[in-house]
TrEMBL record:
Its EC number is 2.1.3.-. Homodimer. InterPro entries: CmoA, Methyltransf_25, SAM-dependent_MTases_sf. Residues 61-157 form the Methyltransferase domain. It comes from Thiomicrorhabdus sediminis. Pfam families: Methyltransf_25. This is Carboxy-S-adenosyl-L-methionine synthase.
């Protein structure tokens, strides 16, 4: 695993964060050192896939990056005639994900596509994963995407949505931010790296609070929705149709 040192030296002209080839090269290290509970979330995605995947259905990984969630889903499908569709708008991500997918043999088809998840069709879905992706989509497009997921889902299907949260209470926000900063420091990130990455993500990663996510899923039509895992300001929601 290549170590993430993208922001270890000073950048005079710091551009907005992009999922380009430089990020792709260090992405597994970056996300494991930046997102508390990431591996636990992947394990949970596998278990929930095992429980809720329906035969003769499609499973979606929307914003798949390197395909970690899609591969976890594929390892845990136990019913017949399932197909996994993994989509990302980054060409570099899809190219590298293709290498990872080809390294693991499975009878479950896994199709990688480069594209905009806001524009693709969701059909016959029993499991849909949006793992730390909605936060990078324009806020005004988020409800329509969740609506589309619900409408393309079989009864009994699930949405697993993982996101960085913010808290409306200022004291709570400061406390949770401090814990997250300490998490990154303990994983070897310097103050320069933390500061520069935060600047690069500003206006690119726009988080919602817990209530906004739950209301969005309720408005889409989901009968059941709640947080199944949370670590600091990172949470994963489960919504059931």
């Amino acid at each position: 695993m290549q170590k993430d040192t993208l922001y270890a030296s000073t950048h005079e002209a710091l551009g907005a964060f992009q999922f380009d080839e430089s990020v792709v090269a260090v992405f597994p290290d970056m996300i494991s050192r930046s997102v508390p509970g990431y591996q636990t979330i992947l394990t949970g995605i596998g278990e929930l896939t095992r429980q809720y995947a329906q035969k003769d259905s499609q499973l979606y990984d929307l914003g798949c990056s390197l395909g970690a969630a899609a591969l976890t889903m594929r390892r845990n499908v136990e019913v017949e005639n399932c197909k996994i569709i993994a989509i990302d708008n980054s060409e570099a991500m899809i190219q590298r994900a293709t290498e990872y997918v080809q390294a693991y043999h499975s009878e479950v088809p896994l199709i990688l596509q480069q594209g905009d998840i806001a524009e693709i069709e969701i059909e016959d879905a029993s499991v849909v994963v949006i793992n730390f992706t909605l936060q990078f989509i324009a806020p005004e497009q988020r409800q329509s995407l969740v609506n589309k997921v619900y409408q393309g889902m079989k009864p009994g299907g699930i949405l697993i949505l993982s996101e960085k949260l913010h808290f409306d209470d200022e004291q709570m926000q400061q406390a949770i931010e401090h814990l997250h900063l300490q998490f990154k420091r303990s994983n070897g990130y310097s103050e320069l790296e933390i500061s520069q990455k935060r600047s690069a993500l500003e206006n690119v990663l726009i988080s919602d609070n817990q209530q906004t996510h739950l209301q969005r899923m309720q408005d889409a039509g989901f009968s059941t929705a709640g947080i199944w895992f949370q670590a600091y300001n990172f949470a994963s929601f489960l919504a059931i149709k």
